[in-house]
Design a protein that fits this description.
heterodimer; A: alpha+beta; B: alpha+beta; five-stranded parallel beta sheet; five-stranded antiparallel beta sheet; 17 helices; binds flavin-adenine dinucleotide; binds iron/sulfur cluster; binds FE2/S2 (inorganic) cluster
């Protein structure tokens, strides 16, 4: 196959970006999208030009590193597929493909297709954990967890933190990501104790990091490579409301309004 | 020189408890005076950084990825072992210890393997408490499955994403400490040198991968948890950034490298489809719980669709050769068995390098929904890559490089021969011997990070005075200059070949000559050809761009150069070890039925290599291995 690529190039966060055209030749059906980019880069290096920078690591759809917007859709728009798991058999000879980085206020572009997603770490640091010290915990079987709950937790915990949901959202909201984490921990007995503090802190951090709010476009679920359900956003909202009610009634200090 | 691993003597059952009571402590109020540098935040690094932070030490942690949650550990699918005996099937610490020693073909230290088996029980508890959503049965209790090399069901799992969930657990504990201010995290930062002052590891020199800045960090101890090196083979199951660089730089600064020739080839990977490929994808070994491996009995059937080959014309070779373990024979054995079938001309698929892994029988027995529940995401992954539906037609699999059992030499305290340098997880050589059983790497990484290093590092720190060095120390300044000069040298080559060209050339050479099997001839040839690749690299490499910017080609070039140098050590080790054991299979040493033949009188030791300067042959140190609790015997899975 031969493909025409229109790729976003940008040297650094404060530099202007532009689209550049490339031809990808001899692309095989069995190649992954990133392997196709590797090939284009080999070509550029041979010609003494600067290869396209893009993020990737596992190339198995699990680490959440790869992050390209393909033809306007984060990860390329095939169901439950990260861009590293996207195969060229999904394209036709002669296709033109637009390739851009994640676009979101909270994710500055570092170079070409590489963005800084450190804001997602900040959200987790705000409270996306269970506060338990190493050692001194009870036996794993001492608190039974129903299969339904553990499955629900696992459905939410599958989020790979890629940030496609943020990039797809017209508001640049991280609600799906935060909703998944809050729901994962709230589904388990171990995560209940600090649930109200957690949700309040994470929502506050979301505001501080420059993420927008959810206004029900559902673009996030559509692009999510792990099929994280928007029902987790409703769960997030419910958890938040409960926390606010608790805050009125009880002693714990909610910092967010 | 004869090495001492400092393993406790006396009854093994109490060895760790006794040792732990003898270790010195640092009182809570003094802990913040010590700074610990943790390089790598996969399972081993994140768990240790989080735990040391919790204890009150001042920790700085570094990783290559943009966030610790993306370390290579995230990719582990199948599960993590623990001797819980929840199933009442006869499991015990002794059995897990025994399986580990036997699985490793008697080339690991007994006391270390015992300790890992012992603390494995606490790992599961810890992870449950952190919110890791392990699989549960309908009564709400933890579920398990079986893995290769064991006759009990001791593998805990979280769907097909166990590594991901365990890493997210460790990452969340780490995030909590980052928030608390005990850990400072430096993502996208690569260690390019170790700083040794007064004979002790006191710092590292790093490159900020975004800005290109080169600088040193100093501390009272350095922990390397930088993962394994099997990407030296180019096409492996590892993530793209996995490299030998950190360990190699430490080696060049005096740390000894142990057993580099022990590399694990995993039997169940998706076969290579073409030249364009950048990696191979693993299909979890747990699939062999329900999948059966076979090839056609007759060569003339190889081209036929599998459905047209009747039962009686199929060779379920693992079940035939290893009746008591069947499809769950250990990895080195299952890999060689697959290769044997393909070498014999009965391999399937377009390249003839593949065997079938079929679920038909278990789908008939259990129903497709049960199989879907157990392995759904793996089937999906398979389909995405091959465009074939594993529920309908058998999967095709072939062995691929997967894991490094070798690594930096450490004693029982996980300290290398360089005082102050500790090595954890896949980066060290301990525990697995010449072969790692499935679901044991995750266990080792977390055992090291959560439950061993917090005790052993305290013993070291309590014996030294904290602080006293700064980044303006001459050794730091020199290290920064050396790193800058090395990068400048690479950038100034201005040849016409990309880094990838060299990675492929080296990787293919190693796979062919030092892969699933090795011989004196193949290794001698590899050793003769590696210097040529190195010289070509130094003359013909081209790296576009500069060092003072985000430059992925430059990152790769450094890693490639280290792989090229390291490959020589790997082959040297493989050549000197004139026996077969586990993942190290020398064709000269096998029994009539093709099983590996060890030479215990001459090679029952761990080999630790010391760097002697550029061009000089490395010096071999031996740590003799003693087996008092599991008796040395021919390893059999029949
Ligand atoms: C596909 C796959 C499936 C697997 N399945 C299983 C399984 O089911 N069960 C099991 O037990 N094991 C499994 N394994 C093996 C297991 O995942 C690994 O051995 C283990 O996770 C290694 O953990 P680690 O913490 O030692 O290293 P890693 O997770 O590799 O972490 C290395 C860390 O070091 C950092 N780093 C490396 N070099 C540098 C440097 N120079 N400077 C700064 N930072 C650096 C990286 O950024 C990373 O943070 C699997 C492996 C693969 C590839
Ligand atoms: S919710 Fe989905 S799209 Fe968003 S970060 Fe997680 S996996 Fe990616
Ligand atoms: S590279 Fe890991 S998810 Fe794509």
């Amino acid at each position: 196959m031969e493909l025409k690529l229109i790729v976003w190039r940008q040297k650094g966060p404060d530099e202007p970006g532009w689209f550049e055209n490339y031809i990808a030749r001899n692309v095989s059906q069995d190649q992954s999208f990133l392997e196709m980019l590797d090939q284009v880069n080999e070509d550029l290096i041979r010609k003494g030009r600067i290869p396209i920078a893009f993020d990737h690591d596992c190339r198995e759809g699990i680490c959440g590193t790869c992050s390209a917007v393909v033809n306007g859709v984060p990860h390329g728009g095939f169901e439950r597929t990260t861009v590293c798991q996207l195969h060229m058999r999904k394209f036709k000879d002669g296709d033109a493909i637009y390739i851009e980085p994640w676009r979101a206020r909270a994710f500055p572009i570092l170079r070409d297709l590489v963005v800084d997603r450190g804001a997602l770490d900040k959200l987790i640091q705000a409270g996306g954990y269970i506060s338990c010290h190493t050692g001194g915990v009870p036996d794993g079987n001492s608190i039974p967890v129903s299969k339904a709950d553990s499955d629900k937790a696992m459905d939410a915990a599958q989020c790979i933190g890629c940030g496609a949901c943020v990039a797809a959202c017209p508001n640049g909201s991280a609600m799906l990501f935060v909703g998944a984490k809050v729901s994962h921990l709230a589904a388990l007995p171990q995560g209940q104790v600090e649930a109200p503090e957690r949700v309040v802190a994470m929502i506050q951090a979301m505001r501080d990091c420059g993420f927008g709010n959810c206004s029900n476009h559902y673009e996030c679920q559509a692009v999510c490579p792990k099929d994280i359900d928007v029902k987790f956003i409703s769960k997030l909202n419910r958890e938040f409301l409960t926390a606010l009610i608790l805050a009125k009634a009880g002693p714990f200090k909610a910092t967010a309004g | 020189m004869i090495l001492d691993g400092k393993a406790p003597t006396g009854p093994i059952e109490t060895s760790w408890i006794r040792h732990r009571s003898d270790l010195k402590l640092v009182i809570p109020a003094n802990r913040r005076k010590y700074r610990i540098l943790v390089v790598g935040t996969g399972l081993a690094g994140a768990s240790s950084a989080a735990t040391l932070g919790e204890m009150g030490y001042n920790v700085e942690a570094f990783c290559l990825q943009d966030t610790p949650r993306r370390a290579h550990s995230i990719a582990a699918q199948g599960g993590i072992n623990a001797a819980k005996n929840y199933l009442n099937d006869g499991d015990s610490v002794f059995r897990l210890f025994h399986d580990t020693i036997k699985g490793g073909d008697f080339r690991a230290r007994e006391a270390d393997a015992w300790r890992m088996a012992e603390v494995s029980q606490y790992i599961i508890d810890q992870c449950v408490a952190q919110g890791v959503p392990f699989a549960r049965d309908y009564g709400g209790y933890l579920d398990t499955r079986s893995f290769g090399g064991a006759q009990v069901s001791r593998t805990f799992y979280a769907r097909g994403q166990t590594g991901q969930q365990l890493l997210l657990g460790a990452y969340s504990a780490l995030s909590r400490q980052i928030r608390a201010g005990t850990v400072r995290m430096f993502p996208r930062t690569e260690m390019l040198d170790l700083v040794v002052i007064g004979g002790r590891a006191r710092g590292i020199t790093v490159r900020d991968l975004v800005t290109g800045e080169i600088r040193s960090h100093v501390g009272d101890a350095v922990i390397l948890a930088t993962g394994g090196y099997v990407n030296v083979f180019h096409l492996s199951t590892n993530a793209m950034a996995c490299s030998v660089t950190a360990a190699w730089k430490a080696y060049k600064k005096g740390a000894w490298f142990a057993n580099p020739c022990y590399t694990q080839i995993h039997p169940t990977c998706i076969p290579q489809s073409g030249e364009h490929q950048s990696k191979l994808t693993l299909m979890s070994e747990s699939l062999r719980n329900d999948g059966r491996c076979w090839v056609p009995k007759r060569k003339s059937d190889v081209g036929k669709p599998p459905g047209e080959i009747p039962e009686e014309d199929r060779d379920y070779y693992l079940e035939r050769k290893y009746p008591s373990y069947g499809n769950l024979a250990p990895r080195d054995i299952a890999s060689r068995a697959a290769k044997e079938q393909c070498d014999d001309g009965r391999g399937v698929g377009p390249t003839g390098r593949g065997v079938y892994l079929e679920f038909k029988e278990s789908i008939e027995r259990l129903g497709e929904s049960v199989i879907r529940e157990r392995y759904g995401n793996l089937f999906e992954m398979y389909e995405r890559i091959t465009d074939e539906d594993g529920y309908k037609v058998p999967m095709r699999i072939y062995p691929a490089p997967h894991y490094a059992m070798g690594g930096l030499w450490v004693d029982y305290n996980l300290m290398s021969n360089l005082p102050g340098l500790f090595v954890l997880g896949e980066a060290n050589f301990s525990v697995h011997g010449a072969n790692r059983l499935g679901a044991s790497a995750l266990m080792q990484g977390l055992a090291d990070g959560y439950f061993i290093i917090p005790y052993t590092i305290a013993d070291y720190l309590a014996r030294i005075r904290p602080g006293g060095v700064s980044t303006s120390d001459t050794e730091c300044v020199k290290s920064v200059e050396d790193v800058k000069a090395a990068l400048k040298r690479l950038l100034s080559i201005k040849g016409d070949r990309s880094v990838n060209y060299f990675r492929k050339e080296l990787g293919a050479l190693l796979w062919q000559h030092c892969g699933m099997e090795r011989s004196r001839e193949s290794l001698t040839e590899a050793l003769a050809r590696i210097p040529g690749i190195r010289d070509e690299f130094r003359e013909k490499l081209r790296i576009p761009g500069t060092a003072a910017e985000f430059n992925q080609q430059l990152e790769n070039a450094v890693r490639a150069e280290d792989f090229i140098e390291f490959a020589e050590l790997l082959c040297t080790d493989a050549l000197h070890r004139n026996e077969s054991c586990g993942g190290h299979f020398r064709v000269e040493h096998q029994y009539e039925d093709g099983e590996a033949k060890r030479d215990d009188p001459n090679y029952c030791y761990s080999a630790a290599w010391e760097y002697k300067g550029p061009g000089a042959p490395p010096e071999l140190h031996k740590e003799p291995l003693r087996f008092e609790n599991v008796h040395l015997m021919v390893r059999s899975y029949k």
